[in-house]
Amino acid sequence: MSMKKKAKYIILIILSLVVIISVLAYKSYQQSYYLSYVTTEFDQDDNEIMNIYTLDIKSGQFKKMTQLPYCCSYPTAIYDKESQCVYYSNNQKSKDHHDWVLKYNCQTKKSEVVLDCFVRINDILMSNDKNLYIIGSTKKNNIIKPYVYNIKTKKISQIDISKDMCFGDNYNCFNDELLLTGYNDEESRRMMEKYNNQSIKKDEKDYNIKNRIYKYRNSPQLLTTVSTGNIPIITSDSKKIIYGKYDGFSMNNLQFQQFKDQKNSSYQLDKSIIGLIQLLDNDKLLCIASTTYSEGIYIYDIQNKSFDKELFNSKGESLYSAHYVKE
């Protein structure tokens, strides 16, 4: 083989390797995500059940992955595409009716107990590295707290948010950050006693207490403090956090605010929005909105203040526990 042919052969090999590396790099850059959410309904025998769905927001296609008994404090579950399993809350086999974390294999159709240390579970989320975040109270601590469970090592640890009770939560799979809201349980009880003892109720703002917003990635970080009743819903992008709050003990007037550049300020969203799932690119919001007859999952255009697309309508089902997950 002549030197020219050898040189051409080497160049072709190098170009082929460059193309292969570029394709692999592009595929790794183009991450895939899906929405995992739960609905509840009654079956033909009048038993309440949980439906676990996944939804691709790009195509708008949703799929019911499985149906499980609804026997827990709050209907919460998360589907893991990688293992084809559902992690969910259930107290069916618990003698004390305590919530357990169970793992349901969608292929074998069998469940196994993962954790039996909880009394009440409010939410189950999944991190990008496929560990679980569990919001609940345990046999050792009756205050609702956030916990991280390592699926591989089977070790669980509490996330330190001081003396606060965890009230709201969400996981940002783009930033790999857990968002938490909470307040001091003792302070809340004292304020509730004052509220109940007053025959003439004042403005709801008079019963506000200090609520705190945290983010967690390896360690917790206090971001801001807000004077309000509670903060049940929250989401974020790389620049800001959006949250919904109620003053005092009223659950009638949900107000939206943003935390940006170390400041809290009012934020305008449609009044029908009751759940914040994930802030998306191009000023879009994946959210839950309530109409007169049903609840649904929508993409909301923040700038134009309009709903772009309805992705799911619950109709006869009640919608719960929706989280955006990285594949």
Task: Describe what this molecule looks like in 3D.
The structure is a single chain. With 327 residues, the protein is mainly β. It is 12% helix and 53% strand. The chain has 2 helices and 24 strands. The protein has helices at residues 3-29, 185-197, and strands spanning 33-42, 48-56, 61-69, 77-80, 85-90, 100-105, 110-115, 118-126, 132-138, 145-150, 155-158, 164-172, 177-184, 209-217, 219-228, 230-236, 241-246, 255-260, 263-266, 273-280, 284-290, 295-301, 306-313, 318-326. The chain has a 4-stranded antiparallel β-sheet with strand order 3-2-1-24, with no helix packed on it. A 4-stranded antiparallel β-sheet has the order 4-5-6-7, with no helix packed on it. The chain has a 4-stranded antiparallel β-sheet with strand order 8-9-10-11, with no helix packed on it.
Outline, from the CA principal axes?
globular
Q: Summarize model confidence as the mean pLDDT.
A: 91
**What is the share of helical residues?**
10-25%
Q: Main sheet?
A: 4 strands, antiparallel
Which structural class matches the secondary elements?
mainly beta
Offer a concise description of the structure.
The protein is mostly beta strands and 327 residues long. It has helices at residues 3-29, 185-197, and strands spanning 33-42, 48-56, 61-69, 77-80, 85-90, 100-105, 110-115, 118-126, 132-138, 145-150, 155-158, 164-172, 177-184, 209-217, 219-228, 230-236, 241-246, 255-260, 263-266, 273-280, 284-290, 295-301, 306-313, 318-326.
